[in-house]
Amino acid sequence: MGDVILTMKGIDKSFPGVHALDHVDLEVRKGEVHALMGENGAGKSTLMKVLTGIYSKDSGTITYEGREVEFTNPREAQDAGIVIVHQELNMMGHLTVAQNIFIGREIMKGKLIDDKKMNEEAGKLFEQLGIDIDPKETMSRLTVGKQQMCEIAKAISHEAKVIIFDEPSAALTEAEIEELFKIIRDLRDKQLGIVYISHRMDEIKVITDRVTVMRDGGYVGTLITKDSTKDDIINMMVGRVIYEDPKTESAVPEDAPVVLKVEHLNAGRMVRDVSFELRKGEILGFSGLMGAGRTETARALFGADPKESGDVYVNGTKVEIKTPQDAVKCGIGYLSEDRKRYGIVVAKTIAENSTMASLENFMKGAFIDKKKENQAAQEYVDALKTKTPGVDQLVVNLSGGNQQKVVIAKWLVRNCDILIFDEPTRGIDVGAKSEIYQLMNELVAQGKSIIMISSEMTEILRMSDRIVVMCEGRKTGELDIAEATQERIMHAATLRD
Amino acid sequence: MEKIKQNAIVKKIGFNRVVLMCVLILLYLLFALIAPMVKENANFVSFARILSLLKYAYFMGFLSLGVTFVIATGGIDFSIGPVMFCGALISGYLLTSKGWPLILCLVLCILVGTAFGVLNGVLVSYAGLPSFITSMASMMLAKGIGSVFTKTQSVNWPQADEPGGWFRNLIGVKIGATEIPTGLVLLLLASVICAVILNKTMAGRYILCIGSNREAVRLSGVNTKRWETLAYIICGTLAGMAAIFYVAKNTTVLPGLGDTFNNEAIAGCVMGGTSMTGGVASIGGTLIGVLIIALLQEGIMAMGFQINYQYIITGLIVLTVVYADLRSRNKRN
Amino acid sequence: MTEKKKGNAFTENPLVRAIGVQKIVVVFVLIAMLIIFSAASSAFRQYSTLLSVMDCTYYLALLGIGVTFCLITGGVDLSIGTGMFCYALVGGFLITQKDMPVIVGILATVFCGLLVGTINGLIVSRGGHAPFLATLCTMMIVRGMGAIITGNASVTWPSSSSPIGWTRRIFKMDIGGMKVPIGFLWVLILAVVMSIFLNKTRPGRYIIAIGSNKEATRLSGVNVATYQTLAYVISGIFTGLAALAYSSAFQSMIPGGGGGIELNAIGGAIIGGTSMSGGSGTISGTIIGVFLMSILQTGLPMIGLQANWQQIIIGLVLIVAVYIDVLKNKKLV
Fold first, then answer.
1. In the CATH hierarchy, which top-level class contains the domain A4-238?
2. Where are the domains of chain C?
3. What is the pLDDT of residues A406-460, one digit of tens each?
């Protein structure tokens, strides 16, 4: 490890209603790989966005190469030598690899672009990195892993001094990760400072020199990787916070019938051989880190995305679910994690949204029975305590929590018995959160069954009767609430095969 | 301003439609004032003028009502004008050259429109083609089929006093010297039916919701493809009906034409407050929009200008109205 | 996206990939068509047929080259067909009615294209309008403008026998009593120049990048609006050039005509492998595609299918071409 190249000290950042970063420190040295770890929402990405000028900080200092800096956009940061390799790739699929690497700063020969030179230069970069990619290949024809390598090559071509890898391995195969690590080690040996954001404990142990852990927007501490154990890091990540009344034992009776059985579900690389059972009156928590494949599992089960194979049984009968229509007919309802895109029609009223899935029950001959519709909507506005002046309000005017209640109402009006709640409290304030929890408990008491996907450990431990843990498209653990602890869940969530 | 907006009656009708209504009246007064100045003997304020204006509004209205449904889903249909002509050509040819009974021909006219609606709907919603290019291709088909059918001859629909000419009574019945605009009754009736379909039935509900957020509707377990197709079918069928009102006003139908009417119909629709991005549609607004288009055309003619000014004005209107819609949408988000 | 696309030996052949599978297939279709037409019609085998195919190819190719740039950005330009007529009318009007020098007429024609192209570009890139709607509106506007400027009269550019009729010989030289379609050379040169522009210069590169991923291009520090506008400007200029080609080959231009020609050009581009969804397209493919369209247009009447059948067939070709494009994109994702 060499000299300090980058220091972030006391970085503070608030958004309306959220204290996203609370005096966070980070120090990166030349020739080190510095891991940045934390649960989802711990503030890692926000910190990196402050660093590269996407967000402006409220207070604190950033010192880079001995000078205090403040970038106002990513381009400035890039020019100074700080580059991010994003998890989501920013590439032009129709252009070649070399054309992508040099976009915006093409090598010219007179008035024309010198593609030959660009290919050569890109070739040199790849040679330097020791990877085998043809610079003339069209970008979209490469594997995701190779595309990632191209992003790295692009970063290096900017003469970067600090490279931030934002969960680079999420989409890579084993062999590609090996290749990636080799590149990262080479870069480290060339005295670059590297920030490595990842959830994968074993990777952290292999590749990084130091680990900075964040929790709930705050700085927890920095460890030397080789002197610490996996458990040390996990303990720092989850903290010692006492959570509000965690469930201690399952409320589901021993003999409760299985209402939903999924066997060997496969859908793309994010859902691989997933099997589980849901019992009547149960809240089945789905835990895991970002990109574990939980939402993908739910969408494949619901027929929103095509699945390759797998059997689904509802109340013991095998069913074919190819479209959301089929799922709804089987009595399954799905609350998406992205409410605005997949849950509600914001430009329509509460009443219209509430009956969206069951309009055929509100017909009087050929016409919609508005009175009956309004009554039903009102009934659920009352039951769910949705705060609104009336059911003819446009959903766009409601707060997040109340919008969520409208989506729930939609499935309750449809009388669905199996509900999939995907991040039900995301973007909802604390008060509304506990209302949603209470509501879920009431629903299961009435005999409905809920699959709850959540990235919040508190939520999982507070609500679930049983917990399925996923990692990289596979089910890596199943725990009864009585035996579940944060450490055990986190352990399973970072378990790679 | 706020006070007017909050007024109960204004709220019921919709502020935009009240404004549009005022535009219509002001435009009429403007033409009444200017026309005699520009051209001598241009008597704009007369019953005959209004009748002529209305006759233009009839077929235009049916086209516009239809395309309102398609635009509500977030799509577009550029084939309606040629489809209208195609229907008029095919059924007119069978009526005049093959001696088919009138009533059968009128039904066939509508069915031709329906057929094109089905074609567009299936290609857009099931095959996933972009609606504008699909409907332009079917515009070519409509033009071609129409003229192949008549062997590139024009078709003359019978006059009111000729046998098989009673269909002209659909738009106006002469009682003595005065003509009763029966077409207006039919157009209003059609508007009411369309408004009911759009606002009171399952089809209308889903069509509007698909335009707002297709994915959310699909994930509610709704067969979005079927409802989207239906919008195109409604649109085609109304274009078929428009053909009847077109031939009741004009005698001769020429093959290979009709595309200018698309643009005017769409202009009437967007003026009436239907958003090109989908999800928002108003039948009442479309009706007023069509009347404005018809008034413009009548005014331009009355002043002795060419119809070409109409094209320019229509183009500018669409650009302006859609731009305003985009702006207000951006502001809200 | 995760798996490297597995093609068969043919599609993975480097030479095939360099040219593009679709283009190779289209060339074979083209050859098949030539054989069928030649076998079916003796008239098709005449030298004069080649000349008329060429006349048709010139203006379609020029329109096609221009609109390819718009398509590559993910947009479209629907004003080119009507625009071509309008600009030729304006130029011809200045020469024949206002006795301006021919060169002024030519410059005016191209300038009109440039002007409308710039307007289209600005409306789309700065105004945020959907390209199809914006260019549809300008299509209506130029349609009206052309007719108004010429006083609704058709215009014929000076004939080859006239002392100022040299424009006729730009594309068709008279060498020893034989008419030589020299225009192909000019079109080819322009195609090569524009191909280099598209693939070898920064503006061309950015136009492709915008169509491929607009946001990523913006993040790379490229002024997206400028280059998007440029695509429409190019389309406008080439429409002006196409107007010259058209007026040198054909008799008179009717005001308000030209509608529908844009679909032949767009269809040609899509057949040649340019994608409606942006990001990919080649000038050479467009040339092959419009050549196919020209052969259809010239050959169909010779096997007894008149203009009306052409519309049907071109409509169908368009639907099939766009559908193939949609399927291609589905596989890519």
1. alpha beta
2. 51-332
3. 999 999 999 999 999 999 887 777 677 888 888 999 999 999 999 999 988 888 9
Torsional sign, CA A448, A453, A459, A462: positive
The C-alpha atoms of residue C187 and residue C171 are separated, in whole angstroms, by 9
What fold is seen in the domain B44-320?
ABC transporter involved in vitamin B12 uptake, BtuC (1.10.3470)
Q: Do domains A4-238 and A258-493 have the same CATH topology?
A: yes
H/E run at residue C56 = helix C47-72
- What confidence tier does C311 reach under pLDDT thresholds 50, 70, 90? confident
Q: Chain A residues with CB inside 8 Å of B212's CB?
A: 345-348
pTM of the predicted model, to two decimals? 0.87
**CB interface of C with A, residues 264-323, below 8 Å:** 279-280
Residue A364: strand pairing partners:
A367
CA–CA gap between residue A421 and residue A437 (Å, rounded): 11
Q: Where are the domains of chain A?
A: 4-238, 258-493
Domain C51-332 class?
mainly alpha
- Residue A349's pLDDT band (boundaries 50, 70, 90)? very high
- DSSP per position, A367-379: EE-HHHHHHHHHH
CA dist., res. B55 & res. B246, Å (int): 8
Integer distance in angstroms from the first to the last C-alpha of chain A?
32
Among A31, A68, A50, A405, residue whose Cα is nearest residue A193: A31
Q: Domain map of chain B by residue range?
A: 44-320
CA distance B230 to chain A (A): 15
**Is pLDDT at C194 greater than 50 in this prediction?**
yes
> Taking all residues of chain B, what is their mean pLDDT, rounded to a whole number?
89
Restricting to C residues 255-314, those with a Cβ less than 8 Å away from any Cβ of B are 255-256, 259-260, 263, 266, 276, 306-314
Query: What span, in angstroms and rounded, lies between the C-alpha atoms of A141 and B10?
Result: 58
pLDDT per position as a tens digit, C222-238: 889 999 999 999 999 99
CATH architecture of A258-493: 3-Layer(aba) Sandwich (3.40)
Chain C window 114-173: which residues touch A at a Cβ cutoff of 8 Å?
none
pLDDT of residue C4: 40
CA B171 from chain center: how many Å? Answer: 16
pLDDT of residue A17: 65
Cβ distance C3 to A143 less than 8 Å, yes or no, reads yes
Separation CA A128–CA A124 (nearest Å): 6
Please give, rounded to a whole number of angstroms, the shortest distance from the CA of B318 to a CA of chain C: 7
CB-closest option in A323, A344, A370 to B216: A344
